[in-house]
From TrEMBL:
This is GDP-mannose pyrophosphatase. Its cofactor is Mg(2+). Transmembrane segments: none annotated. It comes from Pontibacter ruber. The lineage of its organism: Bacteria, Pseudomonadati, Bacteroidota, Cytophagia, Cytophagales. It catalyses: GDP-alpha-D-mannose + H2O = alpha-D-mannose 1-phosphate + GMP + 2 H(+).
Length: 180
C-alpha cells in the first residue's frame, strides 16, 4: 500500500485527514483520525497494597469509565508524560516505572499509539483529581488485586493492563467474559 496524497479536512482538538492510497494498482480514499499518542499506567500503591484507577466521564462512551491513568503524550516523551499524569490524576509521585508494551488503539482508522506502563507509588503529595484548566473531573478508585481482577471493564487499555497483570501474577481474571 502506498499513500499518494494526504489532505487535512478538519483540524481542531482532533485532526481528520483524507488519504488517497494505492494498492495493487487500485486507487481509493480513506479517512484517518489523529488524536495524538498517549501514555498510560496501571498504578499500584505499595503502602496501601491497592491498585489505583481513575473514573471519569467520557463523552464518546456517554458514561463514566473506570480506567488506568492516562494522558496525551507531551514532548514525545512517554515516561515523562505518565509520571506527570499520575501526579495530576492521583496526587502520587512515582517510585518505579516499568514499560509494559506499546499498543495501537484502533489501527484501521486512528493513528493513536499508547505507551503502557506499570507504576509503583507510595507517597501521595497532592489531592489528584486532574487539572481544572483541562476540565478534568477525575475520581480516584482504590482496588485490591482481587477486586481489580473481578471488575467489569469497558476501556481497552485498562483491559490490556489487567490482563498483563493477571499473566504476571499467573492468576487469570475471575470473570474472563467481563474483561474480554
Amino acid at each position: 500500500m502506498t499513500i499518494k496524497k494526504i489532505k487535512t479536512i478538519y483540524d481542531g482538538f482532533y485532526t481528520l485527514r483524507k488519504l488517497v492510497v494505492e494498492e495493487n494498482g487500485e486507487i481509493f480514499e480513506r479517512e484517518q483520525f489523529e488524536s495524538g499518542d498517549g501514555a498510560a499506567a496501571l498504578v499500584y500503591d505499595t503502602q496501601k497494597e491497592k491498585y489505583i484507577l481513575v473514573k471519569q466521564y467520557r463523552y464518546p462512551a456517554r458514561q463514566e469509565l473506570l480506567e488506568v491513568v492516562a494522558g496525551v503524550l507531551e514532548d514525545n516523551d512517554p515516561e515523562k508524560t505518565i509520571r506527570k499524569e499520575i501526579e495530576e490524576e492521583t496526587g502520587y509521585t512515582v517510585d518505579s516505572l516499568q514499560h509494559i508494551r506499546d499498543i495501537y488503539t484502533s489501527p484501521g482508522a486512528c493513528t493513536e499509539k499508547i505507551y503502557m506502563y506499570y507504576a509503583e507509588v507510595s507517597r501521595q503529595k497532592g489531592k489528584g483529581g486532574g487539572l481544572d484548566e483541562e476540565n478534568e473531573n477525575v475520581k480516584i478508585v482504590y482496588l485490591t488485586q482481587e477486586e481489580l481482577l473481578q471488575k467489569e471493564l469497558l476501556d481497552a487499555k485498562t483491559i490490556i493492563a489487567v490482563h498483563w497483570l493477571s499473566k504476571k501474577l499467573n492468576q487469570p481474571p475471575k470473570d474472563t467474559e467481563a474483561t474480554l
